[in-house]
Design a protein that fits this description.
The protein has two helices and twelve strands, in the order H-E-E-E-E-E-E-E-E-E-E-E-E-H. It has about 260 residues and is α+β, with helices and mostly antiparallel strands. It has a domain of about 170 residues: Beta Barrel (Lipocalin). The strands form three sheets. A four-stranded antiparallel sheet has the order 1-2-3-4, with no helix packed on it. It has a four-stranded antiparallel sheet with strand order 5-6-7-8, with no helix packed on it. It has a four-stranded antiparallel sheet with strand order 9-10-11-12, with no helix packed on it. Strand 2 and strand 3 form a beta hairpin. The protein is globular and about 55 Å long.
Amino acid sequence: MFLLTGLGLLAACSNNDKKPASASVPKATKPLLMEPFRYHKMIEVSPGQDYDVLSWGRGSSAKGAFAILHSDSAAARYTTTTGDLDGAIVDVYNSDMDLDGNPEIIIQAKGKDTINYTNIYAYEFGGEKAQKLDFPKLTKSQRKGYRGDDNFYIKDGILMREFPIYDGNSSGAKPTGAKRQLQYGLRNNSFTVKQLSKDSTSTSGNKAAVTAPAKATASVEKSTSSTKVSKHKGKKTRKHVAEKKHKKKRRRHRSE
């Protein structure tokens, strides 16, 4: 009887010593957007100054619209800025490139036709006003070897852009391994562009440009040296004629 009771107590203790299975903690998932919204990002410029950027649209994934919702909770003021959207929003950036205290909200959207191109929508916010900033297109030289796949980022408050360079602009072009890097600033509410990378997509043209001045210099040196020789010969000839005249005069003087 005592033996059975002891065995029962041991079994109960062993069951109590077993650790309960740890409950699995579900991972935090990004909240899903309800249709027709596709994208949302909130940017806090300063305490009480928030900008919610959204995109929406039904029936097409390539076209749509965007909205920038500015919440000034300190002054209880709320404004909305909207526009048409070409492509899908990739990211949204906040900067103050002209250092005037007014933030710039920059939307990067990625579209696709024959290349993966990028569209930029930029606004500067001052008080309740939002001024649209026209983003400059690539120049003819900057478009050489461009096939899209742009990478934008903010560095020291400045908008940077870089993209791979291809050996042509056709669909069969291959990457060269080089990248073109551009730096964008803001002055008087207009973008400035500066190319930081030193690249070339037409090396043959550069060689011709270097060779041509060298040949021209050689021809100039040759003509200069020939001029010096002719001048030197001319001096010798005049000197020789003068000596002959002097000898004739001496001979006449002796005969007299």
